[in-house]
Amino acid sequence: MKKIEYIKNSVISFKQWQGVNYAAFNSLHKVVRIGTMLAVYLSWFGFKQTIAQTDSLSINKKISLEEVEVSARRSTAVYSEVGRILHVISRKEIEKLPVYSVQDLLRYAMNVDVRQRGPLGVQADVSIRGGSFDQVMILFNGINVTDPQTGHLSLNLPVDMQSIESVEILEGPGARVYGPGAFSGAINFVTGSKSTNNATVNAMAGQNGLYNVAANTTIKTGKLKSYAAANVANSDGYIDNTDFKNHSIFYQGLLDLGTEKIDFQVGYNDKEYGANAFYTPKYPEQFEQNKTTFASVKMTTGTKVKITPALYWRRHQDRFELFRNEAPSWYTTHNYHLTDVYGANVNAVIPWKLGKTSFGGELRGENIWSNNIGVDMEEPIDVPGEDAQFTKFYERTNMSTFLEHVYNYNKFSVSAGVLMNWNSSLGIGVDFFPGVDVSYWASNNVKLFGSVNKSLRLPTFTDLFYDGPTNIGNPDLKPEEALTYEGGVKYLNDWFSGQVSAYYRQSENLIDWGRLEGEVEYQTRNLSDMDSYGLTFQGRVNVKELAASSPLTSIDFGYAFIDQDKNAPDDYESVYVLDYLKHKFNVAANFQILKKLTAGVNVQWQDREGGYQKYLETGEEVATDYQPFWLTDMRLQWNEAKYKVYVDASNLFDNTYYDLGNVPQPGRWIKAGVQVSLDW
Fold it and tell me: Where is the TonB-dependent receptor-like beta-barrel domain (predicted)?
């Protein structure tokens, strides 16, 4: 078995992310470091970082784990020490899958629920372990880019799928590591990790007028490594009013000055799309445009004790039209929103004879200008680039500090810490979020791990203030809180790696959009307490290790089960929180048909709890349960040294299904493309 081959689409247990450069947990047979998941709660008066070590543990004589340096805690860790659950999907694995957006890719991960409103990166709600889409923190090269307006917009990244070198998915609470927002998990997208000069171009076209052209390059000049990328994508849509246009541009620079390293990045994304029945089926001719601007700079300094300060900024502009074409007389204006997020953090790690002690903090400011979200302004201001005015404004500041200590002894590792958090606007004062993670190698093949962590999620601006024809916000909402217990066992040998894990989450004050019997409008409210239970089994069989001549090279499989004991009125109709993915089964097989011809087939079954109000053409609404469905995707690919040609079929058997309200999902969609990649 090749070194760490099983890691590519497997599970890495871990305690937290962190590292000096943005890394992908050794997806390409080398140590790559993930930029200190800066979204972690560090404040203007703290410190932290990562200390790279070359600790080593041979799992067994047949499996030589190349020392994979993972950001498994506030300080760096090697794979043998980690004690949380993390999925790592490498670029090599991504290129085997028929995916064109991060939303498509995340659908293959166990315990991740992707509910798409628009396909191919237009818009999707992503949740982990039955949580809501607002309970997942989204990070881009370690920087928290979660949208404070609404989680619907958090995946508006300034790059396309071709620029993603790896994806790291943390299951479970991450408040101690990342701060408010990582309530049920966190997802980090990593770019720019190539180590050689390279230029890559990808051109794809498909049914429904679809095309996507993307190009990126990595250039090393002296001490500076530059990564630049751009793409443009369009489609006429798979049904009426599902067309879209999308383009982005991105630059990342890594400057190595020896003991000091500087990482800076800037990007922009603009997408406009028909939003057929996105937020209400009563008005299917909806339209939306999003513009995202992002920039950050981080410096790492020091040798043994390393300090990492960082600054970042994200601006998101949103125009939502309830009527794309003709509008009734009562509709007088579109919705306009502009959010700004500013953050500053600093991290430090101090190694000493009893382990590693980490401390730090973050100061994060969030504000919004809008014409229907926030508090009334004394004087309206113009909307940039539009013939409209902002009439409302809202801002809040979040400050957090943390302290963590890690101790390793032989095959045993423990990490314990606490986050202190304060928010300026919710009247909750200072709160503490402790946690502890433990792992132990019971034998050369068996690893045990467990953790207990407390987490927090602040209400979004939409939760607090949004008022529309069918929705009413609630400025008196309380933050969500949860205590999660999790544990599991991992087994691996030279041809198999697998894991069984379970969790139990006690949640308080869960926020949901819903309505009681007799209510016309959906309102945000804090639900009563909720208990959640989950069990996951997944594994990978490296068939080549068992039968070298077999055309079947590998099989990946997994099953996730979730159950939630809700304390809500029987007549309560939930829009999000109670519509969780109860069962998810996935199996993927990869084949080597000819020397250069490969094929991949992925089959998935989903069964969702809950239902929705199906809107009929007569104007009536009928209570409808979500129905389970099967999806089959396939990729056929010809591989040459400098280029690849591929043909994909999504939803191969053309199944009709709904996984988010009244929004029908695409049927069979055939796509084909070519990728050319040159090193020098």
Answer: 240-652
Single-letter code of the amino acid located at 119: P
Assess contact for 577 and 130: CB atoms under 8 A.
no
**Residue 178 DSSP one-character state:** H
Contact between 286 and 276 under an 8 Å Cβ cutoff? The reply is yes
The 10 Å Cβ neighbour count of residue 119 is 24
Q: What amino acid is encoded at 346 in this protein? A: V
Name residue, tokens 């691996």: 492
Rounded to whole angstroms, the Cα distance separating 339 from 318 reads 9
Distance of alpha carbon 366 from alpha carbon 342, whole angstroms: 7
- Bridge-based pairing state of the strands 136-140 and 185-190: parallel
User: How far apart are alpha carbons 510 and 515 in whole angstroms?
Assistant: 15
91-135 residue pLDDT tens = 888 988 899 899 999 999 999 999 998 888 899 999 999 988 999
Task: Please name each of the domains of the chain with its CATH number.
Answer: 5-679 (2.40.170.20)
Any bridge partners for residue 408, and if so which? 413
- Kindly write down the DSSP assignment for every residue of 132-165, as one continuous string: -GGGEEEEETTEE---SS-GGGTT--SS-GGG--
DSSP 8-state class, residue 107: T
Residue 543 DSSP SS3? helix
* CB 48, CB 308: distance < 8 Å: yes
**Half-sphere exposure of residue 221: CA atoms within 13 angstroms, side-chain side:** 5
What is the phi/psi pair of residue 134, to 5°?
A: -85, -5
Q: What's the rounded Cα separation, in Å, for the pair 462 and 614?
A: 24
CA distance linking residue 115 with residue 118, whole number of Å:
9
